[in-house]
């Protein structure tokens, strides 16, 4: 009996492993072999002219402004150096992902740059057309264009020296704006993903998971989650490609990364900007890496002091600083893997289908017992002597185990992934959660398979006994798997619902055996 159960369980586990392997893509990121080496450790910008002032030279005056957009308006915060001569360079700030209120974003760097003699304008992000599911980077470039036009009208600003400072998601927008407005003077790109959002997401998830120390089997979920169409539709911007705009980039560009930013392809991004701009004859690309700095160019919560110094000097010193040596300076970056195209799932490529399967599977586990309960109540009300139905001996508890196990494993997987995500985003590791949690989920899944093996073997025994009775001249009592509508509904709905959940769990890697 034990051997038979073990053999059936092994066969089921192998079958689920095969199902998981063939229903979706694997994840095999390509290691970086073309590394970018800074030629100097000092990030200071060379080639500065006589008019370059250090951070802290001027007091800063803040003025609230209103930026008129198509169909609406947003507030903005203008910062100007007090006592500085007119004809100053101006910078419009483009937000990364998030809400982006004018009085909360870029406070330190915008203030520092203004104190060095640069007029800065931080507009609030337009949110009526910006959601998690829907955003249009070309339209967003049109919105930021209004801020550029407003800054050019300030008396203290030289309209021919107005440029852009873009961070993270904003670096997908800024090249579009530069392409649309030939009068943009320069571009600062901070923590630029460069590759399409879907590729960047796959890269970031991979990097975060590696830093958290998850088991190798968890990585299979990356292309299956990132590569599918999200449930409910939308997310068209996930495949936005900024490359055509970078290939037409014709203004001096400063590229900045922190070496401790796990979410960005910090070497690949700089190399691609250099190559794409160079294809257009633009070799005025300056790259700076700051040691230990994160996505916001911060170390320990504080903005890297040299960062504001260098950006301010580069902007003020243009055009002299555009091609000044060293072109690449700072700490040595270390990108392990390339951000590349994320494989699309085969049959589970639509998120609605993935969610639908889970809902249907869970619903079936509820429907069967509910039918049994309702049938029993109806018979009791009608005072019918016949029972509502019963399961054959040896089926009840394995069936309960199958239903409870499949649900518990699914819930456990979700809890595990959420817990790992929280650890990863907080740059933390916890072996009990990361390693122990994965083992616990897989053990739950294995226990569910054992329950399924009991059911399969018991059904096989009942079928064999039924054939024996049918073939016997003396006949005999036939024991059916389930009698009555309620019992039959419970048996087969539980089997069907659990099968759907087990296949879904196999898809997400719970049953993989190195296949």
From TrEMBL:
Pfam family membership, one: Peptidase_S9
Gene3D superfamilies: alpha/beta hydrolase
Tree of life domain: Bacteria
Sequence ranges assigned to domain Peptidase S9 prolyl oligopeptidase catalytic in this UniProt record: 141-316
InterPro entries per record: AB_hydrolase_Est10, AB_hydrolase_fold, Peptidase_S9_cat
Keyword Signal: yes
GO molecular function terms noted in the UniProt entry: carboxylic ester hydrolase activity; serine-type peptidase activity
Residue spans crossing the bilayer: 353-378, 399-418, 438-457, 489-510
Signal peptide: 1-20
Region (Disordered): 33-52
Entry keyword set: Membrane, Signal, Transmembrane, Transmembrane helix
Gene Ontology terms describing biological process: proteolysis
Protein name listed in UniProt: Prolyl oligopeptidase family serine peptidase
């Amino acid at each position: 009996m034990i051997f038979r159960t073990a053999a059936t369980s092994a066969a089921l586990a192998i079958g689920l492993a095969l199902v998981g392997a063939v229903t979706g893509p694997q994840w095999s990121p390509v290691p970086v072999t073309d590394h970018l080496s800074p030629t100097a450790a000092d990030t200071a910008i060379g080639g500065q002219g006589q008019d370059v002032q250090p951070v802290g030279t001027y007091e800063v005056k803040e003025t609230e402004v209103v930026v008129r957009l198509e169909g609406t308006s947003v507030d903005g915060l203008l910062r100007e150096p007090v006592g500085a001569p007119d004809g100053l360079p101006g910078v419009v700030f483009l937000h990364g992902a998030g809400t982006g209120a004018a009085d909360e974003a870029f406070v330190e760097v915008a203030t520092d740059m203004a104190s060095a003699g640069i007029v800065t304008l931080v507009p609030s992000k337009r949110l009526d057309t910006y959601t998690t599911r829907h955003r249009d980077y070309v339209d967003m470039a049109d919105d930021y264009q209004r801020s550029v036009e407003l800054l050019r009208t300030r008396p203290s600003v030289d309209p021919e020296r107005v440029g852009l400072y873009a961070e993270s998601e904003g670096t997908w927008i800024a090249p579009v704006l530069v392409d649309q407005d030939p009068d943009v003077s320069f571009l600062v790109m901070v923590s630029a993903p460069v590759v399409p959002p879907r590729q960047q997401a796959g890269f970031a998830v991979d990097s975060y998971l590696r830093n958290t120390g998850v088991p190798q089997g968890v990585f299979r979920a990356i292309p299956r989650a990132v590569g599918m169409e999200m449930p409910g539709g939308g997310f068209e911007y996930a495949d936005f490609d900024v490359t055509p705009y970078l290939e037409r980039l014709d203004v001096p560009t400063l590229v900045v990364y922190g070496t401790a930013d796990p979410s960005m392809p910090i070497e690949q991004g700089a190399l691609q900007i250099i190559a794409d701009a160079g294809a257009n004859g633009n070799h005025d690309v300056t790259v700076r890496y700051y040691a230990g700095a994160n996505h916001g160019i911060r170390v320990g919560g504080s903005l890297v002091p040299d960062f504001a110094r260098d950006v301010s000097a580069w902007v003020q010193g243009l055009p002299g600083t555009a091609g000044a040596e060293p072109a690449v300076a700072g700490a040595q970056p270390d990108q392990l893997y390339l951000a590349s195209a994320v494989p699309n799932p085969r049959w589970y490529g639509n998120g609605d289908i993935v969610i639908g399967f889970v809902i249907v599977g869970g619903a079936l586990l509820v429907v069967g017992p509910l039918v049994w309960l309702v049938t029993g109540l109806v018979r009791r009300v009608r005072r019918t002597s016949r029972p509502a139905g019963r399961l054959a001996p040896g089926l009840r508890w394995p069936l309960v185990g199958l239903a409870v196990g499949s649900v518990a494993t699914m819930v456990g997987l979700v809890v595990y992934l959420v817990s790992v995500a929280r650890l990863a985003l907080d740059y933390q590791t916890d072996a009990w959660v990361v390693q122990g949690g994965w083992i616990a989920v897989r053990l739950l899944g294995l226990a569910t398979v054992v329950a399924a093996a009991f059911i399969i073997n018991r059904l096989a025994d009942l079928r064999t006994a039924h054939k024996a009775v049918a073939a016997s001249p003396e006949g005999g009592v036939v024991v059916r798997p389930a009698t009555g509508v309620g019992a039959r509904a419970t048996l087969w709905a539980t089997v069907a619902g659990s099968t759907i959940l087990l296949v879904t769990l196999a898809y997400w890697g719970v049953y993989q055996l190195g296949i």
